[in-house]
Amino acid sequence: PPPVPITEDGYYSSLKAYNNLVINTGEEGDVRTIVVDDFELSGAGNISLQGSGKLVLVVKDQFKFTNNVSFNTNGLPENVVVYYEGSNDLEFGQGHIAGSVYTKNTGISFTGSTSIQGNIFVGGGNVSVASGNVDLSDALLYAPNSDLSVTGSSSIEGKIIANTVTGSGNSSITFKPVDLNEAFFWENPNP
């Protein structure tokens, strides 16, 4: 298991946060890079950043984000980048993240109420909102080759770029305007 708090770059086969996990990102201009095979934030877990640097979290295989969790909630979204390389859709169960998320080959499934301050870039697969409310008010969902489906009584709100958008049941989709002059990309999301 990783040390607590995490104060250096590193590789871990597993990173699980069920309580509070602190990651020290160093000083302004520093980039803390953590590579993990399996990442799990669940059971009301919380990951917070300490320092003025940025965090790049590379998840190679499994990503679990469920059960009232928070990741960098009180921090700046531009200080966290999650880069997901796994083969299963990335799943957000219920929680909040202040940071940007990139999927290399998969889609994203929202299965519980989630709020994201940052941006979501989908490299493959589709995006589904199966339950809960997804708040992307301060985010861009950039999935130009993906189909977005919102089903049941779920909802999504935010800046959305997708191949197609469909809603069924009692679902709700609220679009926010996309200003292409905004800076949506952080210097280099690919570690």
Give the C-alpha Rg: 16 Å
Proportion of β residues?
A: over 45%
Distance between the termini: 22 Å
Helix content: under 10%
Helix and strand composition category: mainly beta
Report the sheet with the most strands, covering strand number, pairing sense and barrel closure: 8 strands, parallel, barrel
Roughly what is the average pLDDT, rounded to an integer?
Answer: 92
How is the largest sheet built, in terms of strand order? 5-7-10-13-15-14-11-8
The number of helical runs is 0
- Element-level helix/strand string: EEEEEEEEEEEEEEEEE
Count all strands and give the number. Answer: 17
Low-pLDDT segments: 185-191
Shape: globular
Structural overview:
The structure is a single chain. The chain has 191 residues and is mainly β. It is 0% helix and 59% strand. The protein has no helices and 17 strands. It has strands spanning 10-17, 20-26, 31-41, 46-51, 54-65, 69-71, 80-84, 90-92, 95-98, 100-103, 108-110, 114-117, 119-122, 127-129, 133-150, 155-167, 172-175. It has an 8-stranded parallel barrel. The radius of gyration is 16 Å and the shape is globular. The two termini are 22 Å apart. Mean pLDDT is 92; it is low at 185-191.
